[in-house]
Model the fold of this input.
Amino acid sequence: MLGKLVEFFKGLFGGKGGTQLGSGNVSTSVARSVTVTAGRDAQHVTVADIVNNITHAAVPPPAFEPRPDEAEILTRLADSRDKTLLLVRLDSVAGFAVLIDAKELAGPRDAEAGLRYVEAVGRLREHKLLVDHAGDGQVFHLSAEGREWARKLRGKCPECGRPTANVGDDPARPPVWECGNARCVRSRWHRDARCPTCGKRPSVVTDGGVNFTSFLCEDGHPFTTSSSKS
Ligand SMILES: [Zn+2]
Ligand SMILES: [Zn+2]
Done:
């Protein structure tokens, strides 16, 4: 079976001149996926599986796809007064706090959110959207690419992608963007919702009606809040 597959893929890719997939690369991938799967359940190895394996092995690392926390950091930093993000060493679970305009992004008691923001800063650095010109790993600015992303993401909820409204009332201060989508856990309706079992934030809205919204928390506990639309 292995021999047949290798022949098959040599036929499939051999004529393409190997611009992306060298022939050595192909046979390694084929051999690996067949070895891994053949022992388990050989008849379920489909050509599509193997083509997927090869594609994954050969494509370059994925382009930057902002996650909600990263989108939030990019847009908040672009809107901030001093355009500076501080990564401050702290005696906390996350080990660091992320500050924009001297305000910590995560609440002081929300360790998990703290970790997510620290991780988001790391990922933004990796993609060179955040730069520290002093090289000290503490003071960051948006790079040109970072500002470009912020422009693209600005005015959209980082969670659900719907347009947000500026609810800031002081024109001298940075805008305050809020999502009004009642089905979105980051919207203003659910900003303060917490799981009664573990105290964590909701991660998904599972149901909703005129006077209630049901969620799963970050740990998967179901809970329901009554509507508090102000
Ligand atoms: Zn939203
Ligand atoms: Zn919970």
Q: What stands out?
A: The longest strand covers residues 202-208. The helical segments are 2-14, 23-41, 47-58, 68-79, 111-126, 144-153. Residues 209 and 227 are 9 Å apart (CA to CA). The chain has three domains: 2-58, 68-154, 158-230.
